[in-house]
Amino acid sequence: MREKNKFDVKNVLFVLTITLFAVLFFLSICTTVRGQEETSEDMSSYYRELEERFMSVLREELEKDGFFESGVTLSSVISASGIRTYHVYIHHDRFDTMDDAEKQCFLEDISMLSFADKNCDVIYEILP
Question: CA torsion, points 112, 117, 120, 121, in degrees to nearest 10?
Fold first, then answer.
């Protein structure tokens, strides 16, 4: 009878050990996922701040060049590798009176404004 009790205790300890390892494994996965979410949130906040500063500088530059109340849209595309490409669409009535050479000159001048994160590409486009 004594051997039966030893066998039962060993089974209980084995089941408790496996259960403990399973719980620890699950908790470590949850912690890792939570850490990745926070990192993603931090990156989104970081880029949102850079985008706001970029738009502010861009609008100031446009107004300095006489393009008051321009329509400006900034959109971003994030590749699978995490590289961001920004598309800046600018609309103003003055573009209707400019020829292609003047528009190209304008785009070259305005493209001198660079995004604060050098790993991001910025593409400018004039909308009709």
Answer: 0
